[in-house]
Please model this.
Amino acid sequence: MRADLRRRALRALASCGAALLAAPAAASAADGPSLSDAVSSVNTTWVIVAGVLVMFMQAGFLLLEVGFSRMKNAGAGVAKILVNFSIASIAYWALGFALAFGGAGTIAGTHGWFLNVGHTAAEAAKDIPLLGAYDISPGALLFFQFVFCAVSLAIVWGTTLERIKFAAYVVYAVIFSALIYPIVSHWIFGGGWLQANLGMQDFAGSTVVHLIGATGALAALLLLGPRRGKFGPDGKPRVIPGHSMPLVGLGVLILWLGWFGFNPGSTLGAIGNRFAEVVLVTNLAAAAGVIAAAATIWLLRKTVDIGMVGNGAIAALVAITAPSGYVEYWAAPIIGAVAGVIVVVGVLAIDRVLDDPVGALSAHGIAGIWGTLSCGLFTSPRLATLNAVGDPGLVYSGSLHQLWVQLVGVAAAFACVFAISYATFWAIKRTIGLRVTPEHEEAGLDISEHGMYGYPEQFIPAPEIGAASRGPLAMPSAEPVPSGSLVTPGEATA
Model:
């Protein structure tokens, strides 16, 4: 009897305790968001902040390209950056995101057109499998992945400066952001065959973003040809210097800052603080790349070339992008330093045969390949297990398996992007035309394509020069300039 009473008393106490424990949870559900909502909000906020940092890289590309251009082409990049970013925004929302992440198909996704998947991760997970693992807003995931696409598209145009028609930007931007980039990114980021079947590792896009962009750039460059005057009658390259190295330096620093969204943001969450490790890995690689590039160009030319130092930072950042979530701290400076050497040697070698004004083929293409392959060397067992993609690298495992997987992935991405891009640019060349006329190139794209100058005070129309030459402040030796010519003030009074 007493035992039965004791059992009843214990059951009553247990019921009371359960009720007391359940009360705060019920109250919190009624009064405000739950703990899971708070976690989702924190992670979503971090992904949006990281995405905004990546978007800011567009300003870095703009300043870099303007600085490496001559003054008569300095303004053309403004319209190009703004229009391409806007086209990609619409095309990726409508089609690209679904092809990249809408289901775990082998080649491409099939769900999520116009992001019609619901407003929460739980609602969208059936159409966007990646959201089943990351409790963030579907809108945040789309925005973050879109700015990656926009960066890759921006890389394409660095090789084409000072001679490409503006209309070519528009046509290729639609095809790139709606088809080319989404499909290849699905293979590696979205559960496609390279990731799911082979285990290819690319944490934030050395191949997906940078090699894809550089491959499209190569296809355009082969059909576009060099700038007028780049190669002499003997076939040797001539230097066509950009007009502002301070703008180049500012562009590099903005890109460096943006990379702290690019790589750490690819954790897709702030809870657990893993993104802090990726921040440090990224910075260590970039610093080593600058030092290695400066040392390499000094050994080869006995000067510390400003452009080469900037490209050393970019190449190292490109290289660490794939392994940033797979390698320990010690490997980051090695990866960055090798990239710094590669970019200098690559720029000097490519410049002998192709006209790449900003060094994109080397900084984004060759360095992107190196960074992707470096996973096959340095991926640690801890991080291979954490990411659940692929195997440890050669240094830890003694096996070449992961290195071989990385090589197959690089080759597949390059072949696909090059084939489609070359066909697209060939069609553009045969229809609306790819390159401006020699007269327009000589005048500069600012005035010939956009009807205005980036630095208007440097290019004053001849009638205004003539009027000024007759004014009270005119130099005694000044003479009127022939009508219709466009000259600089210095030329007008020479």
Summary: The mean pLDDT is 89.
